[in-house]
Write a structure and sequence with these properties.
Layout lengths: L2 H22 L3 H21 L3 H25 L4 H4 L3 H27 L9 H5 L2 H9 L4 H22 L11 H6 L2 H4 L26
Helix pairs in contact: 1-2, 2-3
């Protein structure tokens, strides 16, 4: 066994252990930290497969951004873990059945993937390119339509998440852009014809006091 194979088994074992602890940890913060460990080991496996771009993207995007956001939300929210774990064993048979079906499907796909024919050698021009450029060419040429479909699905998911979490506050004042567009000139300014009212001049003070008589 060479060093590369030994490292693969070590990273894979840690990845499986961390993935198992993600779903079995009682503390949500501990589960998120184990997920970070799983991401790091998956990145190491990709490094062994000479997919440096995917490994760095996994570390920067998921570990550096997504998981930090998860940890921030979990630590800021007051989550009642005991209330979340109520009824766990009641739903365990259905969850176990679904998990077994998913594992069988993934094993079937992986076994068929390992039996693929040997790929032909790359041309000298492609061999000089890095795997990042080759990945971009493959994604934006052969898999362009699946990429666009995935982007639309993610956009719909973002809009749905915003719509589900939107709450209108009664104590806040906001302007509806749709109502602003519908406003006409006559609605903004109204000219009224009013008769002028002129107040009479003030009366002169009477000088009939005793001091003013001659």
């Amino acid at each position: 066994m060479d060093t590369k194979t030994a490292l693969f088994f070590v990273f894979s074992a840690i990845l499986l252990f961390a993935s198992f602890r993600v779903i079995t940890a009682r503390n949500p913060v501990h589960a998120a930290l184990f997920l970070v460990l799983a991401f790091f080991n998956a990145a190491c496996v990709w490094m062994l497969l000479e997919a440096e771009f995917l490994a760095i993207a996994l570390v920067l995007v998921y570990v550096g951004a997504v998981m930090v956001l998860f940890l921030f939300v979990l630590m800021m929210l007051d989550i009642n873990v005991d209330a979340l774990r109520q009824g766990f064993w009641k739903h365990f048979p259905v969850a176990g059945f679904v998990g077994v079906v998913i594992a069988i499907e993934m094993a079937w796909v992986l076994m068929r993937g390992f039996n693929l024919p040997e790929p032909k050698g790359l041309s000298p021009e492609l061999a000089k390119m890095g795997n990042t450029k080759l990945l971009g060419i493959e994604v934006y040429t052969q898999y362009l339509y699946p990429l666009q479909i995935a982007a639309v699905i993610l956009l719909v998911a973002i809009i749905a998440a915003i719509a589900l979490t939107l709450r209108r506050r009664k104590d806040s004042r906001y302007i509806d852009p749709a109502q602003q567009v519908k406003v006409k000139k006559s609605d903004r300014l109204r000219v009224l014809n009013m008769k002028p009212e002129v107040a009479p001049p003030p009366a002169a003070p009477e000088a009939n006091n005793a001091g003013g008589q001659a």
